[in-house]
Design a protein that fits this description.
Shape of chain A: globular
Oligomer: heterodimer
Structural class of chain A: alpha+beta
Order of helices and strands of chain B: EHEEEEEHEEEEEE
Helix content of chain B: under 10%
Strand content of chain B: over 45%
Strand content of chain A: 25-35%
Distance between the termini of chain B: 25 Å
Strand order of the largest sheet of chain A: 1-2-7-6-5-4-3
Largest interface: A-B, 37 and 43 residues
Number of strands of chain B: 12
Largest sheet of chain B: 7 strands, mixed
Chain lengths: 122, 192
Amino acid sequence: MGHASGGGYSSPGGLSQNLGKLLNKFPSDRQGRLGAKGRNKARLIASDNPAKTSEDVYSALKSGGKESRLPNGKGRLTAFPDGSRVIHRPVSSSDGSPVVEISIKGPNGSSYKIHFIPKESK
Amino acid sequence: MIEPNMSTEFSDSENQQLSELIGSKLLFVGGKDLPEFLVASQIVISTTKGALVFEGDVVESGFEGYVENYSRIRVHPSPAKEVSNLQIRGNVYFQHAGELIRNVYVVRRVITELKQGVPSWTLATSRAVVLDFGTTQLCLSKLGEHDEALAITDMHGFEIGKVPETTSYFEVDLETGYQVHDEIILLNDPDA
């Protein structure tokens, strides 16, 4: 094997651990999925500033991963060595709201997305 | 072959580009943001017959009854300058370098949703490309059915079960189930 591409890592940690740190700050379900149940398999987090909240959640989740811009310009992806990843899309295709997509690999893995919406529209 | 309601399979042009790798030797695998664990949304495979860029992308569709993203691997030739930049920056990995690509396989997946046992939709996708060196293989595959992540996996003997499983939002419940069918497509050697 060659050598790693330069930089992009932050402090060590997996996506599951990063997620665990957010569970007491936002609504979640019994499976440890962040956000409240929404429509069409999506989850929801309501806040006064959805764009900022989505950025804050993504920033907290990406710690320890390798971040890159998506080649289609639709956001950023942070990948972890076990194949887990988190994606931030500032504008979703469905309703235009910011979205964070979480995919955790492994036997207790899960894959879901969270739409960030204004508080009054929940 | 099952006719899908939705397809994110390789185009004829992409299959042609992949088949043209047959008979070349692998030079390296790289990517501007490809870490040593080889997961990223853009990966370059460079060979003695040229380099291809594999990009994770998503396609929007409403076939499930609402708009959702469905992942697709896009393939196109890599400009020589980009290949050279990868080498200069050292964003390259030399696993299997110098090995002859004897065959190229595409792994096609068809997912069928069943509502109370009755098919409601099918999604067909090209989920992986396998470069076959004989006893060993290099696999480039999607990691999810709804996102852009791609992974490179090393194989000693190709089996579909060794291709990394994809994550998805498809959830089984009392009335909803999913059938998943994988098939291996051997691409024709254009020089044969």
